[in-house]
UniProtKB/TrEMBL annotation:
Keyword tRNA processing: no
Keywords, comma-separated and alphabetical: Oxidoreductase
Species annotation: Silvibacterium dinghuense
Pfam families in UniProt: adh_short
Source species taxonomy: Bacteria, Pseudomonadati, Acidobacteriota, Terriglobia, Terriglobales
Coiled coil: none
GO molecular function (one): oxidoreductase activity, acting on the CH-OH group of donors, NAD or NADP as acceptor
InterPro entries reported for this sequence: NAD(P)-bd_dom_sf, SDR_fam
SUPFAM superfamilies reported for this sequence: NAD(P)-binding Rossmann-fold domains (SSF51735)
Similarity annotation: Belongs to the short-chain dehydrogenases/reductases (SDR) family.
KW Phosphoprotein (keyword) present: no
Protein name: SDR family NAD(P)-dependent oxidoreductase
Highest rank taxon of the organism: Bacteria
Length: 262
């Protein structure tokens, strides 16, 4: 891949799922990893494995991206040799609940909006000025097929990912004339803790989401993220929309028991 060796890669939501897999994929390229999540113990136990996997260095920060003041002060307080962030992966995010909008849980809505939209904005606002100053950098946002097409019972999660797409496109326009790149990677279903979190820990319900089909793996998405970062500096991949072979869009799946196909 392109030269990511020694580059500082900041990944939010690196304690699990796509974020953790992305940390390993960048580690294999010899990057320096700046990892954030609320569960710092998880980040710390990943750090040793990431170094073994090839990371040049690992620095972890406990951070709730919903906390605007904490985001600003955490970025401000980074050790001087971690400040020049080359790649920001805005990955921290979640879904909560799957129900009709008119009976939806308002606290769930707020958690999704605060994390997926406002949290992403806070981190972007704190990191991108440095990239502009250095005239170098890459922001990679995690979107979703959910932002491409709304599905029933998921209006608010889908709205947060539609907002992510608008922010991604707006940021790219606002950075025109600089060498800072902006990409959204928009996966369909990926098997992670995502559904467990969505259903507030109901593992039986979460398992049903992935039943009778092959979803994407976090590693599939991580490889794609690294691929976008490894393009030559003048190439900006605006958007990658990706699903497993068993998904056509956010509404249409091939569940083998039902379809009889493969
Ligand atoms: P996951 O396994 O549940 O991981 C989510 C990560 O986000 C965790 O590391 C979690 O860490 C972190 N996080 C959540 N709230 C946070 C907060 N307030 N502050 C800091 N970190 C926070 O889920 P995933 O599937 O990897 O999801 C990662 C991203 O991919 C999300 O943006 C999601 O919307 C997107 N996505 C997922 C799928 C899918 O099917 N799985 C599809 C398309 C897009 P802590 O709990 O330790 O803070």
């Amino acid at each position: 891949m392109g030269n990511l060796n020694g580059k500082i890669v900041f990944i939010t939501g690196a304690s699990a799922g796509i974020g953790a897999a992305t940390a390993f994929a960048f580690a294999r390229e010899g990057a320096r990893l700046l990892l954030a999540a609320r569960r710092r113990d998880r980040l710390e136990s990943l750090a040793a494995e990431l170094k073994q996997a090839g990371a040049a260095d690992v620095h972890t920060v406990a951070l709730d991206v919903r906390n605007r003041a904490a985001v600003a002060s955490t970025i401000e307080a980074l050790p001087s040799d971690w400040k020049a962030i080359d790649v920001l992966v805005n990955n921290a995010g979640l879904s909560r609940g799957l129900e009709k909008l008119y009976v939806g849980n308002i606290e769930d809505w707020e958690e999704m909006i605060d994390t997926n939209v406002k949290g992403l904005l806070y981190v972007t606002r704190a990191v991108v000025p440095g990239m502009v100053e250095r005239n170098s950098g890459h922001v990679i946002n995690l979107g979703s097929t959910a932002g491409d097409q709304t599905y029933p019972n998921g209006a608010v999660y889908c709205a947060t990912k539609a907002a992510e797409r608008a922010i991604n496109d707006g940021l790219r326009q606002d950075l025109l004339g600089t060498a800072v790149r902006v990409t959204t990677v928009d996966p369909g279903m990926v098997e992670t803790d995502f559904s467990l979190v969505r259903f507030h820990g109901d593992s039986e319900r979460a398992a049903k989401v992935y039943q009778d089909l092959t979803p994407l793996t976090p590693e599939d998405v991580a490889e794609t993220i690294v691929w976008t970062a490894a393009r030559p500096a003048h190439v900006n991949i605006a958007r990658v929309l990706m699903t497993s072979i068993d998904q056509a869009n956010s509404l249409l799946f091939n569940r083998r028991q039902q379809t009889g196909l493969r």
